[in-house]
Amino acid sequence: MSEVIILSQEEVKSCLPMSEAIKAVAEAYKAFAKGRVELAPVVHLSVEKYRGEVDVKSGYVEDFGLIGTKIASGYYDNPKMGLPSGVAVIILMDLKTSLPLAIMDGTYLTAVRTGAAGAVAASVLARKDSRRVGVIGAGTQARMQVLALSEIFPLKQVKVYNIHSASSEKYAAEMRERLGIEVEPVNTPKEAVSEVDIIVTATPSNKALVMDEWIPNGVHINAIGADAPGKQELDPKIMKRAKIVVDSFKQCRVIGEIQHALAQGLIKEEDVHAEIGDILIGKNVGRETETEITLFDSTGMAVQDIAAANVVYQLAKKKNMGSRIKLL
Amino acid sequence: MSEVIILSQEEVKSCLPMSEAIKAVAEAYKAFAKGRVELAPVVHLSVEKYRGEVDVKSGYVEDFGLIGTKIASGYYDNPKMGLPSGVAVIILMDLKTSLPLAIMDGTYLTAVRTGAAGAVAASVLARKDSRRVGVIGAGTQARMQVLALSEIFPLKQVKVYNIHSASSEKYAAEMRERLGIEVEPVNTPKEAVSEVDIIVTATPSNKALVMDEWIPNGVHINAIGADAPGKQELDPKIMKRAKIVVDSFKQCRVIGEIQHALAQGLIKEEDVHAEIGDILIGKNVGRETETEITLFDSTGMAVQDIAAANVVYQLAKKKNMGSRIKLL
Predict the structure, then answer these.
(1) Is there a domain that residue B328 lies in?
(2) Does residue A1 carry a pLDDT above 60?
(3) What's the mean pLDDT in B30-52?
(4) What is the CATH number for B156?
(5) Which residues pair with A200 in a beta bridge?
(6) Is A54's CB within 8 Å of B325's CB?
(7) Is residue B91 located within the same domain as residue B140?
(8) Do residue A100 and residue A163 come from a single domain?
(9) Annotation says B170 is catalytic
(10) What total number of domains does chain A contain?
(11) Which domain holds residue A72?
């Protein structure tokens, strides 16, 4: 029968430049908006005994001719054992026949496609002259978001706040090197979001870290961290002033940043401006004025994983990379 | 990081003797009955354009220390292209850390574990002196069921009915060879189930194939085919006379053979005698008299897949089989 390509994290890395991931995620959002995507409900397994959780996301995209399944975990005690705090595996199957085509590490891919999502949103929601980014959080995703934005905007300055200052200092040193621009660790969230064009929140927070009164007009906010019930990074009052764009309304109202403003009655469902895909296909508009506040609520969708995995798969085939195994 | 073992169908075959699969499935049912298993809802994707469907089953078993996910498809036009009508891939992860341990073909494994399920059920539900089996259906599962039963009972005779007589003749020739006993193709379902001790139904039927008036006292029935809404193989009146045992009550009432008798009000939920695991752990009884009719309704559970995959994984490790790949 057919061969499956197995791709390690290193191989995935070499087949998924951020610029390609951004294009792929934009295509993914468009396919979703056009109804050419079928996504199954996300399945969640809680492994309380080991402080872990596993999510299984699956779906298919007609435009790519692929069925994709991602099994992703978060295990909070893993780092104590020197292991990653989460892993992911992605399986791609041929939509026409269901034969397995590729199995790859999805850990790095998930980080990249989530970064790419922020850049896609900013490309239609942030001011065109955006040069300064304020980041809350100094982990992998705080890095990916800024690396992705730097593909879209000629960034001049990044400010970063993290609850542990050692982490923001490490972040600053590393990102200064990678981007060749000023990256400044700051001592308060307020400083991080002051006098910037784009704000990124990328933490596991369960409470508001960024207050409404700190947000001037004209800013774009990428709200990345909230992707589960209870998670929160923003003062819900911000939602009342912002043009709100979501990746998937169905998901965001339950697990996204907007869950809190909706629950508190600060906004109604009809106050959500659009899904990002509708803007990308021209069914709705992005930023319209220099002064409006825009907000993108990202929760992550299997269609992004399938799109990014497709980039990896196509390039790996072309470059003859990965291990080829006859599975059945 | 860690290595993942990739196992092809051939390798899975050589690591999963039926006798071991039977033991593993019994352990799986017991673990389920003891509440040491967490199963996520089964996710279903329908690919209407290509007459296909994909199910994703996931869960974990504390007793085995494993998280398992199975992606399984049914593509009804595949055989026309010389491809299998369904494929499956299984991913095992370490319950303690979520690190992936093994990725294997699940197509053959699914067939074996389903066969094993029938044998486990018959071991506590069929009469001890059972020697004759009547089979409706002549596909892979009709083979697996009888091969599994032959591990538990010294079978003397098999009768097989299939809607296409060429298939039942092929079945008979092949199974005669494999089992070294009389295997007779018959022309009607009634002949197949007459004067036998165990009846097996293993077809994709949507209507009753076996009538109530054909079933004498003392018989055990393994109802294997029905595993989706609308699927049916038995006259629902049989349920009124039978001691009904299910793999998972939650599943069977919706997708199992009992769905029809329940919907028609022929039986009530409380008429279902037990889940098979409860009998295996001694919480409930199996067959009690020589004359009662027993029925096992099998829909298939992720815990069976995890148990069977664990057998394969452990043996593959021991024998140093499979391809080893550093995934992350």
Answers:
(1) no
(2) no
(3) 95
(4) 3.40.50.720
(5) A135, A222
(6) no
(7) no
(8) no
(9) no
(10) 2
(11) 3-109+303-326
Query: Least CA distance to B109: which residue of chain A?
Result: A328
**Residue B94 forms contact with A (CB below 8 Å):** no
Residue A99 Ramachandran class (φ > 0 left, ψ -120 to 50 alpha, else beta): beta
Same domain, A104 and A149: no
Q: Are residues A151 and A7 in the same domain?
A: no
Name the active-site residue from B30, B70, B159, B231. B70
Task: Examine the domain organization and report whether A224 and A317 are in the same domain.
Answer: no
Catalytic residue among A70, A159, A231, A243: A70
Contact B54 A58 (CB under 8 A): yes
Q: Is residue B64 less than 8 Å (CB to CB) from chain A?
A: no
B322 reaches A (C-beta below 8 A): no
Give the phi and the psi of residue A311 in degrees, each rounded to 5.
-55, -50
Q: How confident is the model at residue A69 (pLDDT cuts 50, 70, 90)?
A: very high
CA distances from A266 to A237, A246, A299, B39, B222 (A): 7, 17, 20, 37, 57
Kindly state whether residues A55 and A136 are assigned to the same domain.
Answer: no
pLDDT(B1) > 70? no
Q: Where are the alpha helices (DSSP H) in B35-137?
A: 107-125
Contact A68, A99 (CB under 8 A): no
**Residue B190 contacts by C-beta under 8 Å, 6 or more apart in sequence?**
B211, B214
Q: Please indicate if any CB of chain A lies within 8 Å of the CB of B51.
A: no
Query: Would the CB atoms of A328 and B1 count as touching at under 8 Å?
Result: no
What is the reported pLDDT for A131?
A: 98
Q: Looking at CA atoms only, how far is residue B288 from chain A in angstroms? A: 38
Instruction: Quote the mean pLDDT of chain A.
Output: 97
Q: Model confidence over A282-307: pLDDT tens digits?
A: 999 999 999 999 999 999 999 999 99
Contact (CB<8Å) A91/B99:
no
Residue A6's pLDDT is 97
Q: Is A204 in the same domain as A224?
A: yes
Give the nearest chain B residue to A328 (CA atoms).
Answer: B9
Give me the mean pLDDT over the B91-114 stretch: 97
Output the pLDDT for position B107.
Answer: 95
CATH code for position B37: 3.30.1780.10
Note the pLDDT of residue B2: 73
